[in-house]
Specification:
Blueprint (H helix, E strand, L loop, with lengths): L17 E7 L10 H4 L1 E2 L4 E2 L2 E7 L14 E14 L2 H12 L3 E4 L7 E5 L8 E7 L4 E17 L6 E8 L1 E5 L21 E4 L2 E5 L3 E6 L14 E4 L1
Length: 233
């Protein structure tokens, strides 16, 4: 009697090794020339960004019982990211939503800068990569734009934000867009650090707040002209 013992070793994606890399496109939907050296590895809690495509069963009759090839619909790239509120890292998301900030040095504080974000005429587009290095699988999304930012502050839990993304295209590869990305400084913001300020005067300390702003009403029209944000890092 011949007895065979077979062992299958399948590689498995492990969540703790998942990465999220970001780069700013210079031309919509295309990788920037310096992506391999300028991509940034962003901290995140969850990433729901994915591509989907509808399939429709045709009504074609061919005199046979086997199914007819389905009709392929449009490819939709979208999803929500839950990200921790790190002052430096979150500046990248504000830039993606509004455009580059106006940066000035903070008077009397060496090494501190104030970044004022106001909606620009054109919203930047991103290339995002969701990477699973343990199985050499990388999903790259081009033409991504921030459609909504939601922040809920208060309580004793982790302060996070939800970033809603709309994209243009997905490509799966076995190689990453950047082997040695830079990483933002991990300077975490916490609940009860929020305050409303006018000029140099603190008006009120905020214990609970919800900030929600839609950047894109749909995939064509973008509007976010009545909100400005500043960070001091």
């Amino acid at each position: 009697m011949l007895k065979l013992n077979l062992q299958l070793h399948a590689r498995q994606a492990i969540g703790v090794y998942t990465t999220l890399k970001m780069g700013f496109e210079t031309e919509f939907g295309k990788d920037p020339a310096d992506l391999a050296t300028k991509a940034v590895q962003m901290p995140f809690n969850t990433c729901g960004l994915a591509a989907s495509q509808n399939k429709t069963d045709p009504a074609t009759i061919r005199g046979r019982r086997d199914p007819v090839e389905p009709i392929m619909g449009n490819i939709d790239v979208s999803g929500d990211l839950a990200v921790p509120m790190y002052a430096t890292a979150f500046g990248y998301w504000w830039k993606a939503a509004m455009g580059a900030p106006v940066t000035t040095a903070v008077e009397g504080k060496d090494g501190f800068f104030k970044h004022v974000f106001k909606p620009a005429d054109d919203q930047p587009s991103l290339v995002l990569e969701k990477g699973f290095s343990k199985i050499n699988s990388y999903a790259k999304y081009n033409g991504c734009k921030v459609s909504k930012i939601s922040i809920s502050a208060g309580g004793d839990g982790e302060l996070t934000a939800t970033i809603s993304i709309m994209g243009c295209d997905e490509k799966i590869s076995t190689a990453t867009i950047c082997a040695s990305p830079s990483e933002p400084v991990m300077n975490r913001l916490n609940n009860f650090m929020l305050q409303l300020q006018r000029s140099q005067w603190i008006l009120i300390l905020v214990w609970t707040a919800i900030l929600m702003r839609s950047v894109a009403k749909d995939t064509v029209q973008l509007s976010m002209r009545d909100l400005s944000i500043f960070l001091v890092v």
